[in-house]
Design a protein that fits this description.
There is one protein chain. The protein has 138 residues and is α+β, with helices and mostly antiparallel strands. It has one domain: Peptide Deformylase (Alpha-Beta Complex), CATH 3.90.45.10. The longest helix is centred in the C-terminal third of the chain and has 19 residues. 24% of the residues are buried. The chain has three helices and seven strands; from the N terminus they run αβββββββαα. Strands 1-2-3-6-7 form a five-stranded antiparallel beta sheet. A two-stranded antiparallel ribbon has the order 4-5. The radius of gyration is 16 Å and the shape is globular.
């Protein structure tokens, strides 16, 4: 899964995104080895939230501003069978929460209004048209 995540320029990937019906995800953690989360659960999280644009390998070129807590504490089993509890911060927390939603049966498009989703779809189409004319994907 880690190799597939990186091959597709991702920073997170849930098993069910690639047809594996297991509660497993991988997350790129800067300056560390990628983390493998098996049967994770969030045990606590920051009450203050921030909204920044997110993408998803399941929805190429679609970007949505999603509000998420800045940190979350997670219990999980790693790929070596070790039980771990740790607190993720910043982008690592954001990516984990995004992948956790996949494992729980919903996706980031479920978290925005129909209006915001339609607006993002239009921006995606414009971006792809610009790219087809020789522009850069931004």
């Amino acid at each position: 899964m880690i190799e597939l995540m990186y091959k597709n320029d991702g920073i997170g990937l849930a098993a069910n995104q690639i047809g594996i019906n297991k509660k497993v995800c991988v997350v790129h953690i800067p300056k560390r080895e990628p983390l493998v989360f098996i049967n994770p659960r969030i045990v606590s999280k920051e009450q203050e939230i921030t909204g920044i644009p997110e993408g998803c390998l399941s929805f190429p070129f679609l970007f949505l501003s999603i509000n998420r807590p800045k940190w979350c504490s997670v219990k999980y089993t790693d790929q070596h069978g070790k039980e771990i509890e740790e607190t993720l911060h910043g982008m690592s927390a954001r990516v984990f929460q995004h992948e956790n939603e996949h494992m729980n049966g919903y996706v980031f498009t479920d978290l925005v209004s129909k209006f915001k989703l339609e607006r993002a779809e239009k921006a995606k189409i414009k971006m792809l048209k610009d790219y087809a004319r020789g522009g850069a994907i931004q």
